[in-house]
Write a structure and sequence with these properties.
Layout (H helix, E strand, L loop, with lengths): L1 E5 L13 H6 L2 E5 L8 H12 L5 E4 L6 H9 L8 E4 L2 E6 L15 H12 L8 E5 L20 H10 L3 E3 L8 E5 L2 E5 L7 E10 L2 E11 L6
Parallel strand pairs: 1-2, 2-3, 5-6, 6-7, 7-9
Antiparallel strand pairs: 1-10, 4-5, 8-9, 10-11
Amino acid sequence: MIVATVTDVHGQARALEAFAGVFEAADVVVVAGDVTNFGRRREAAEVIEAIRRRNPLALAVPGNCDYPEVDAYLDEQDIGLHGMSRVLDGVAFIGLGGSLPCPGRTPGEVEEPELAALLKAAAEGIDPALPCVLVCHQPPRDTALDIVGNGMHVGSRSVRDFILTREPLVCFCGHIHEAAGRDALGRTQLLNPGPARGGGYAWAEIGRRDGAPGLVRCGLGQAPGIAF
């Protein structure tokens, strides 16, 4: 299975045309939050339909710049992952939207206790033997992906704890635009492709490795090139 991920689209559906080949080559396309830029249902639909024109199988979590009706739209379209999980071809996708409180108020902010509760609820009932992918807008604390411009780490301790406990194969995240890149936490690969307007995407190939389901390879790419 090839998973392609974009994040922080911020309603710029036209920017997704650059990813046409990437989306078409993937088995599933994931949006790791901020589908809109403080937009509503119509803006979310424009973004999701821009993806579905290239790949009918998409999954998404809302970000802190998405109003609750965006999350409702994703659920209605049967692609929402916020506080939920879905199993595709033997791979569990666990999702967490929103972010911790920001310096400026945004509609999708969540405190640490709620983030922890949502992650727990999302993972309930998932067979621990299944390989899993974590899709979260908020990056884990104390990694290369949660550093803002002044050098501070602003990630979530709840997300970090979940990763160290559950050990997903890969975690796709976003939110911190200036922290695009790659890191690892325990056995989990962490990928933030940066805002979609910059042409960055993340990807992972999940298959059988040493006789068991696992992460074959993963990385970051730049549209219109295909790295996988």
